[in-house]
Predict the structure of Chromate transporter.
Amino acid sequence: MSALDALLDLSRWSAVLGMHGMDTAALFGLFGHFLLLSMLAVGGAITTAPDMQRYLVQEHGWLSDAQFSASIGLAQAAPGPNILFVAVLGWNVAGLAGMVATMAGILIPSSTLAFAASRWLGSRRERLGVRAFTAGLAPLTIGLLWSTGWVLATPVRHQWSAWLLLGLTLLVMLRTQVSPMWLIGLGALVGAAGWV
């Protein structure tokens, strides 16, 4: 085997990159799927979590529901940008190569579009059509976030204590000025105690 053939031997790179046995076709499929999701991520990448869950958990079985939810929870608890959950999902699916595939897929199109759109909208923000389009994105974002919450609650949806905690959180958020961080901490304590 020549040096070039050895360099191009993807089975060797699979082990080096920690691809968990994933072949390059599946890796390109992962990249392509996140590339498409990038263009649907109105309100942030978290709004596309339901389709990520469908693709990674239901369609391919690369992660379980619990692994999927834990990946998002871990990334959201860590300091830094919220989009880190995409990197954690990619890492759990196919190691370093999966992390690069998911992050490149989710960042390239949306970043390019955001840059181009912000330049175009800069001089047109007061036009009626632009204002209507911007206002129309709000209910879309709320719906996508609602569906994300529903998917992330899959492992505990059948527990009455989870519904009680959800109701308490909603009530506190609507009626008080308490920081959401306290409610997240309460949820962590309830989960650590095994009540949810």
